[in-house]
Design goal:
59 residues; mainly alpha; elongated
């Protein structure tokens, strides 16, 4: 496949994705925000624990 054919296939796939996508309703958006916030807190907590352990063992 050449570059033009690859680009045309990408555009066709992108249009198909945009056709089937939809805007989330309020409840779905709030759930996604809660899950994302929980993920940030968990990753931050793990990082904090690792830093504290590093200080304790003298790294």
């Amino acid at each position: 496949m050449n570059v033009q054919e690859d680009f045309n296939k990408f555009m066709k796939d992108a249009k198909r994705v945009l056709k089937v996508s939809r805007k989330p309703d309020k409840a779905e958006y709030i759930d996604l925000a809660k899950i994302s916030a929980l993920g940030v807190v968990v990753v931050g907590g793990i990082g904090y624990i690792i830093v504290c352990l590093g200080y304790l063992i003298g790294l």
